[in-house]
Amino acid sequence: MNVKDMFGSLVFNAKTMTKYLSDKTTHSLLSTMEGSAPLDASIADEVAEGMKTWAMEHGVTHFTHWFQPLTGVTAEKHDAFINPDFDGGVIFSFSGKELLQAEPDASSFPSGGLRATFEARGYTAWDPTSPAFIKKTDDGLAVLCIPTVFCGYHGQALDKKTPLLRSQKALISQLYRVGKLFGLPETKRPYATLGPEQEYFLVDADLYAQRPDLIQTGRTLFGVRPARHQQLDDHYFGQIKPRILSFMAEVDNELWKLGIPAKTRHNEVAPAQFEIAPIFEEQNLAVDHNMLTMDVLQMVAARHNLVCLLHEKPFAGVNGSGKHNNWSITGPDGKNWLSPGKNPQENAKFLLILVAIIKAVDEHARLIRAAVAAPGNDHRLGANEAPPAIISIFLGDQLSDVVQQLKTGAAKSSKSSTSMEIGVDSLPKLSRDATDRNRTSPFAFTGNKFELRAVGSTASCATANTVLNLICAASLDEMLTQLENDLASGKEFHIALQELLTQEVNAHDKIIFDGNGYSEEWVKEAKRRGLPNIQTTPEALKAYLDENVVALFEKYNVLSREELKSRYVIGNQHYETIITLEAECSLRIAKTMILPAAISYATELADSADAVESDTLSKYAKEVADLVDDLLAGIQLLEKSLRKNIAKENVKAMEKVREAADALELIVPENQWPLPGYGEMFFVG
Ligand code: ADP
Ligand code: MG
Asked: Which whole number is the average pLDDT over 80-101?
């Protein structure tokens, strides 16, 4: 199949609809998908029938409501199209009712207290804004997937999609307001856009099978960096090895079939680390597509006898993986509003949005940190690695300069000589190419979008985007209200805007930092500025209990107090479960694999020292025996802490075990070491 035919061939998209649905129904569904009309339930039967016919031509036998519960992964429960007919056979059917709503037994999904088990009902409801698609397995099984939201009996959001959609609504209404204020045409419904760059590691499946830590926890709990790792910078953007390239090419094909616009593929910084980036799309769709991308990466890896590791930190000592969440907004005029504009009016609007974002991020840095909090991500954030746990904004030279000028209210010039003319005296000129690079900032302006780099590689982008939409909506709301009041009291528009920008920049520019985000100086400077530096998930999640945050979520109907609390509860439960699991796994490996190998070797050394009567060897044998003691002490500490099972103590004890084990890995003969080493796993291809 050529790429043109392949692209979207497994998606019930506009092209497919016209073939399987009447014009009227196609038109109605498309307007709902574009957000210009609510769903007309009376078309559901026809749509279901059309979907079924199309799907069965692809060999589909089952359908599923595909949703994103608070586990962080996607969920599906398959139902066959079959129904008994009168003479003992079956007919194939799929009704509008089945398309619109289903009731999976929800009792085992985390609800964080939102739903008692006696009212375990959960409902999935069709989200027509993300098209249905067909998931095919390697042996040709095919399932029709209907993207859905997942709610409790009383409508409580039990998933990640519902708050995302609600936050979009909040943002959209503010964007319309901006558009009106600037007298812009309303050509379409405004929307947020997302282009998530996904990082991942690949390891050989045979080596993976010998690492119980990777299998059970997704990361190595033991292991030392080999002499050669990422210091030559030769892997980043390096030539892609044939086995990897054939994996990547197949991933692209699978994604294209699903209508996912996979665009860029390359080697990343760490050995065995890679990245895939799509062309950006409407945010809800992009979130769904990223979830599918993670599935496809894992499925295709298996075909190549590889395993795709999505964990944030599979290997100590080299870079971890994140998801660069490129976020922007498209206004009702159909234009990207984070692009510095072509004329004075567009630039005034750009500055309004920019300052609103600066305000939003400064006021809600803790909330952003909470939105990306996960046990795996703690190994990246705050661990001397991209990006730091301190949330700050990178603007680049030119915009920072503009913002500095706004502080005094007299911003009239721009650093760049190639800037465009803006006729408004009181606002500065902007060049369109204001993008210098900074890889160390958690939230960087990159020319026509903001890139939130703090999202973990395993995470759903839904939570981070919910927060970005929401805080931006709230910030715009506040600023627009002031602006509208000023105008009502007779102030001239540009003067009112200028004053507002000056006021907000003065209040919030402490969040802007263009320097090296990894440096020690920044940690100190950030502290001086009063910016939060939150190292761990449990600390970060507390933001969800903050009264200001509750008020924010409730005001814009994104999450109720209870719904928000449930995210806090689930986040903490998840964190503790992961730490316990890692601690148990670490203990088991240390005790049953590493300790025996270490004891054998220490004994062997001691025996040899006796046999050859060498003092030097004796000394060495003693050193090794001491390390074995350390390991044993670590093991005992971990056993003790596991009995109490307090996450912090488990983490400390695991570190102690690892320290001794890693030291031993550098000593024990390679052929006696029970786990494949980093060196072996890194040079995959
Ligand atoms: P960079 O190298 O600065 O990260 P790229 O042009 O490679 O920039 O883009 C990275 C990601 O950002 C891609 O997924 C791209 O589609 C996405 N992107 C570009 N423009 C936008 C936008 N307006 N909204 C959201 N994402 C965008
Ligand atoms: Mg990028």
From this structure: 94
- The rounded distance, in Å, linking the Cα atoms of 641 and 643 is 5
CATH number of the domain bearing residue 286: 3.30.590.10
Domain around 46: 3-158
| Structure confidence at residue 119 as a pLDDT band (50, 70, 90) | low
Q: Identify which ligand lies nearest to the alpha carbon of 277.
A: 1
- Closest atom of ligand 1 to 336 CA is 23
Collapsing DSSP to helix, strand or coil, 579 comes out as helix
**Does some domain include residue 422?**
no
Closest ligand 1 atom, CA of 330? 23
**pLDDT tens readout for residues 54-86:** 999 999 999 999 999 998 899 999 999 999 998
Distance between Cα 491 and ligand 1 center (Å):
38
Strand partners, 200: 274
CA distance 354 to 363: 14
Last residue of a domain, one of 288, 323, 358: 323
Of 84-98, 193-207, 372-386, 627-641, which range is least confident? 372-386
**Which stretches does DSSP call E strand in 98-190?**
101-102, 122-126, 133-136, 142-152
622 & 491 share domain? no
Residue 275 has pLDDT above 90, yes or no: yes
Q: What number of other Cβ atoms are within 10 A of residue 85's Cβ?
A: 11
Q: Are residues 400 and 541 in the same domain?
A: yes
What is the helix (H) or strand (E) element at residue 307, kind and residue range? Answer: strand 306-309
- pLDDT tens, 254-265? 999 999 999 999
CA nearest ligand 1 atom 8, residue: 446
Of ligand 1's atoms, which has the minimum distance to the CA of residue 338?
23
Contact 463, 69 (CB under 8 A): no
231 within a domain of the structure (yes/no)? yes
Ligand 1 centroid from CA 195, angstroms? 6
Query: Cβ < 6 Å from ligand 1: which residues?
Result: 193-195, 197, 277-280, 326-328, 336, 446, 448-449
Ligand nearest to the CA of 445: 1
Same domain as 185, residue 244 = no
- 158 closest CA partner among 123, 131, 126: 123
> Residue 326 CA: which ligand 1 atom is closest?
26
Provide the domain count of the chain.
Answer: 4
Query: Best mutation site among 237, 265, 281, 326 for ligand 1, i.e. most ligand atoms within 8 A of its Cβ?
Result: 326
**Averaged pLDDT of the chain:** 92
Which atom of ligand 1 is least distant from the CA of 280?
A: 16
pLDDT exceeds 70 at position 17: yes
Question: Which residue, by CA, sits nearest to atom 14 of ligand 1?
Answer: 195
| CA 338 to centroid of ligand 2, rounded, Å | 16
pTM confidence score? 0.95
What is the CA(34)–ligand 2 centre distance, in A? 27
Counting every residue, how long is the chain?
A: 685
CATH number at residue 36: 3.10.20.70
- What is the predicted pLDDT for the residue at 118? 57
> What is d(CA 36, CA 14) in angstroms, rounded to the nearest whole number?
15
566 part of a folded domain: no
